[in-house]
Amino acid sequence: MGSLSQLTSLEQWHRWFAHCSPLTIQEMRSGNLVDGLSISEMSLHGKCEDCILGRQTRRSFDGVTDKSLDLLELMSFDLWGPSCVQSGEGKIYFMPIVDAGTSFKYGAYLADKSDSSTIAAFDAFRAQAESLTG
Q: Which residues contact 9 (CB under 8 A, 6 or more apart)?
């Protein structure tokens, strides 16, 4: 990050503030809410590529966009890991599960990514989702 005494472009502040809205940055400057927020150039050169990519949406499952799905009718899950740091119980993988019909979310921590671990985690999710919804 640059020096507080150095003028910096609005585009650079936008990046430094984790892609915060340029209008918000200008409001912070005009309200003297941030020490050293000096802007050298107020113009932006096109749209921020990272912001464009971050706002993209994915196509829904085969065009299913309404909430007419029943519980456990359509699920999405992913498997993340291995983590560099183990949990207290020695888990290094994470499997987020989302029910498309109810938007119910569940996260399972796994010691490995074997079929037995992932299926057991899904069964635990199913049991919890069914008990919560009756």
A: 39, 40, 41
Q: What separation, in Å, do the N-terminal and C-terminal C-alpha atoms of the chain show?
A: 53
The amino acid occupying position 94 is F
Domain boundaries, the chain: 10-54, 61-133
For residue 129, CA distances in Å to 6, 97, 104, 119, 120 come to 54, 11, 8, 15, 14
Q: Which pLDDT value is given to residue 122?
A: 92
Mean pLDDT of the chain: 82
Q: According to the model, what pLDDT value does residue 108 have?
A: 92
Range 75-93 average pLDDT? 90
Q: How far apart are CA 114 and CA 120, in angstroms?
A: 10
Tell me how far apart the alpha carbons of residues 123 and 50 are, in angstroms, rounded to a whole number. Answer: 37
In contact, 90 and 111? CB cutoff 8 Å: yes
Helices (runs of H) and strands (runs of E) counted in the chain: 4, 3
pLDDT at 120 over 60: yes
The class (CATH top level) of 61-133 is: alpha beta
pLDDT at 33: 86
